[in-house]
């Protein structure tokens, strides 16, 4: 689903600029795409182009219109016919659209050279009657799509840097739509990084910055904002925004956006425990996606369709569409789509008790999630299994040969029979040793895979799910045997400023630095895990309230002092800590964590770089405000 959101959020802005900035000739060939005509239905605009323009003009304008509506099925046949003219768009429009077709189809590596070619041609060609400012705008648009292509190639830092520069450039020149679009795409990259609150902030700013005439772009912002609010806010509000955006797409005849809107609506109903309605809307989405013919979009719809079919107890149909989705994404660069499709198929096969097939597809999903790592566990396991089967088959054949030889010489060669029996026993012993070696190797691969599932890859601490499971276990022990227990929440102060000023690489170094100090400070019986971008959770079993306060204060001081001593590139690093101690009235572990989170918030509010212990005398208004503004940790 992540890939579909990216396609939707990137498609309208460029089309608007292509239309707005292309130089008009004496026939006013681009008047069709003014702000008013931009809001006309697709079919009406298309008919106007066909009826009023010459062949070359018609081809160019149809290509731009198809791009605006994301109609790759109609755009691709036109690519060879697009004329080249000595204008900004004429020089680089054709290679750009070629790159966009590859980009939208999930072939990011193939798209990149086309975007580069478009930018190079624009930079070096001698253009007739074009201003440098218009040239800069068109180059910014090309770079904007190249940045999104980089993001899907896992080059997130480069993508964020490019989009931030475009946003600054657009703001300086007063390019309002381009300024909002760059902000919007920054939100999309943050969505890919699962920084949902940051993504929502970018989407909110983008929607507020668009001119009121950019109705499609505003609808696009609404649908993305609905996606974010469904994650971090109210589903009712998410439904309202989604319906409003769908209404705009229906009026405009934008079937590509409608396909995504229907899919998202199905997803909302699924999360709202209404599988019947979810099935109704996903069927509409699948029908439109199949009509449009883009494999990546179709695969995305099939993944969700198979999940809804499974929810409705239609397992036979579910596995068919899950397999189709996996086949469609197999040869693309769409790592997110591969992870969705392979993982979804593995879960459905597991539900059907087809464990071997499920195992294979789950490992495919893991390989996609690890960005095509060289250590391919599934391939290695398959190779070992094949070699093992081959050796077993050889041993079986050899054993049969030995038995035949023994039968033929049984009467005359009793002594040799004993010798051959001993040799056979030796061979079987070797085979047994081989089997044991393979079992140990498979166990090693399983253990390594399990470690990846419970460990944060950057800091090597426990990940969120695993540290929460540990906490629940110790909470149960604490409640049953009345032993003390403390939970501490740690948050890095001003971490967003570190990323903005020094870059995400230096931000990662700060996270690793703090993680190492946390591990050094803990006792062997304590636990720590990373539960968010810059948040860490400590579980201190059998620790009194006084001891836990001492621990937290010591850790706070050590981090600050060590960052100065080690001359960190970002300067002095400080943290805020919230502490909550177990009491009888806590019903489950999440309540205890929420108390520590409230204390952390209070530490932040009081100036940061401090330890704050949860106190029920904290104002009720603060507590209610926190519960509304922050998602409950579960």
Examine the coordinates and then state which fold CATH places here, giving the name of the CATH topology of the domain at 464-629.
Answer: Alpha-Beta Plaits
Radius of gyration: 30 Å
The CATH class designation of the domain at 464-629 is Alpha Beta
CATH superfamily of the domain at 464-629: Reverse transcriptase/Diguanylate cyclase domain
The average pLDDT is: 81
Q: What CATH architecture label of the domain at 464-629 applies?
A: 2-Layer Sandwich
Measure the end-to-end span.
24 Å
Largest beta-sheet details: 5 strands, mixed
Would you kindly provide a written description of the structure presented here, covering whatever features stand out?
The chain is mainly α and 634 residues long. Among the domains are: 254-350, Serine Threonine Protein Phosphatase 5, Tetratricopeptide repeat; 377-454; 464-629, Alpha-Beta Plaits (2-Layer Sandwich), CATH 3.30.70. It has 27 helices and 5 strands. The chain has helices at residues 2-21, 35-38, 42-52, 55-68, 72-75, 88-104, 108-124, 132-152, 156-173, 176-192, 196-209, 215-232, 235-252, 255-271, 275-292, 295-311, 315-329, 335-351, 355-369, 377-408, 414-454, 464-481, 495-502, 504-521, 545-565, 589-605, 620-629, and strands at 485-492, 527-530, 535-541, 575-581, 611-613. The chain has a 5-stranded mixed beta sheet with strand order 2-3-1-4-5, sandwiched between helices. A hairpin with a 4-residue loop joins strand 2 and strand 3. Helix 11 packs antiparallel against helix 12 and helix 24 (504-521) crosses helix 25 (545-565). The longest helix is centred in the C-terminal third of the chain and has 41 residues, at 414-454. Mean pLDDT is 81; it is low at 1-34, 372-387 and 630-634.
């Amino acid at each position: 689903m992540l890939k579909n959101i990216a396609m939707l959020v990137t498609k309208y802005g460029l089309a608007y600029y292509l239309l707005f900035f292309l130089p008009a000739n004496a026939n006013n060939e681009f008047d069709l795409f003014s702000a008013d005509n931009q809001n006309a239905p697709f079919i009406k605009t298309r008919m106007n182009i066909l009826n009023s323009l010459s062949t070359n003009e018609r081809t160019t304008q149809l290509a731009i219109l198809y791009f605006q509506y994301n109609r790759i099925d109609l755009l691709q046949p036109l690519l060879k016919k697009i004329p080249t003219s000595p204008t900004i768009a004429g020089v680089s429009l054709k290679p750009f659209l070629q790159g966009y077709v590859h980009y939208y189809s999930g072939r990011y590596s193939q798209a990149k050279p086309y975007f580069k070619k478009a930018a190079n041609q624009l930079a070096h060609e001698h253009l007739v009657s074009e201003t440098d400012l218009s040239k800069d705008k068109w180059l910014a648009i090309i770079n904007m799509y190249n940045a999104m292509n980089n993001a899907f190639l896992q080059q997130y830092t480069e993508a964020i840097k490019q989009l931030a520069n475009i946003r600054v450039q657009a703001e300086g020149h007063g390019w309002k739509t381009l300024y909002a679009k760059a902000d919007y795409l920054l939100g999309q990259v943050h969505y890919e990084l699962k920084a949902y609150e940051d993504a929502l902030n970018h989407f909110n700013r983008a929607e507020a910055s668009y001119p009121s005439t950019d109705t499609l772009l505003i609808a696009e912002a609404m649908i993305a904002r609905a996606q974010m609010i469904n994650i971090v806010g109210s589903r009712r509000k998410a439904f309202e925004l989604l319906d409003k955006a769908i209404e705009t797409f229906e009026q405009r005849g934008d079937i590509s956006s409608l396909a995504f809107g229907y899919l998202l609506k199905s997803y909302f109903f699924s999360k709202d425990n209404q599988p019947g309605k979810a099935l109704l809307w996903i069927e509409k989405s699948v029908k439109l996606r199949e009509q449009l013919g883009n494999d990546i979009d179709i695969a995305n719809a099939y993944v969700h369709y198979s999940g809804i079919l499974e929810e409705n107890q239609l397992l036979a149909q579910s596995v068919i569409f899950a397999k189709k989705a996996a086949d469609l994404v197999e040869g693309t660069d769409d790592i997110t789509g591969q992870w969705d499709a392979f993982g979804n198929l593995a879960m459905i096969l597991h539900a059907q008790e087809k464990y071997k097939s499920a195992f294979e597809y789950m490992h495919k999903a893991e390989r996609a999630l690890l960005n095509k790592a060289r250590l391919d566990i599934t391939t290695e396991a398959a190779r070992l299994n094949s070699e093992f089967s081959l050796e077993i088959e050889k041993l079986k054949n050899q054993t049969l040969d030995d038995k035949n030889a023994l039968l033929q010489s049984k009467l005359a060669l009793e002594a040799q029979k004993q010798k051959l029996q001993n040799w056979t026993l030796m061979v079987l012993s070797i085979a047994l040793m081989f089997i044991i070696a393979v079992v140990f190797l498979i166990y090693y691969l399983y253990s390594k895979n399990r470690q990846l599932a419970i460990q944060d890859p950057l800091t090597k601490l426990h990940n969120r799910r695993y540290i929460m499971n540990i906490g629940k276990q110790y909470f149960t022990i604490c409640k049953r045997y009345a032993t003390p227990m403390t939970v501490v929440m740690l948050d890095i102060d001003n971490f967003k400023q570190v990323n903005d000023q020094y870059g995400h690489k230096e931000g990662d170094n700060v996270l690793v630095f703090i993680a190492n100090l946390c591990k050094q400070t803990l006792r062997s019986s304590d636990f720590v895990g990373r539960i968010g971008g810059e948040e860490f959770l400590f579980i201190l079993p059998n620790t009194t309230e006084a001891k836990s306060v001492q621990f937290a204060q010591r850790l706070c001081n050590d981090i600050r002092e060590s960052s100065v001593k080690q001359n960190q590139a970002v300067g002095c690093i400080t943290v805020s800590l919230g502490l909550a101690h177990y009491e009888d009235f806590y019903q489950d572990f999440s309540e205890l964590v929420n108390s520590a989170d409230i204390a952390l918030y209070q530490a932040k509010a009081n100036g940061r770089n401090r330890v704050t212990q949860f106190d029920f005398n904290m104002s009720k208004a603060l507590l209610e405000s926190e519960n509304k503004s922050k998602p409950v940790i579960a």
